[in-house]
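In this section we walk through a basic example: taking a raw amino acid sequence and producing a predicted 3D structure, encoded as discrete structure tokens. The instruction is simple. Fold the sequence below.
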Amino acid sequence: MERGIPEYLYGLLDKQYGEEAAGEILNGYRKRRPTTLRVNRLKTDREAVEAALSDAGIAYRRAEWMEDALILETAWESEIRKLPMYENGWIYLQSLSSMLPPVILSPKEGESILDMAAMLDAFYLYHPHNDFY
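The resulting token sequence is shown next.
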């Protein structure tokens, strides 16, 4: 098994998508995904998280399309989980793609979004005035 890619997957991808596309998919699996996080505005603000990252020597950049999303340049998720800001609930480790639905749906007052694809420990109800997101 190469970097967590099970052997059986090679044949399945090749059969489903063809050799060239399967190769591109596998190359995507092999690449290191940047660690991304979302600021929990119920407990802190982006500036405090940025200061904590800088103090820890972790390079980051802001996601252009979401104010509370940060992309970490020099840290793994396992390293972030050891930091006080993670332990204190200042941040959520979350992929950028998981941050898209509320941005795209742009709920209005009185509307709610039920995330049916969330893991049980991450299950939440988004409402524009409860500041969960």
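Looking at the output, two observations stand out. Residues 122-133 have pLDDT under 50 and may be disordered. The first helix runs from residue 7 to 17. In the next section we compare this with other chains.
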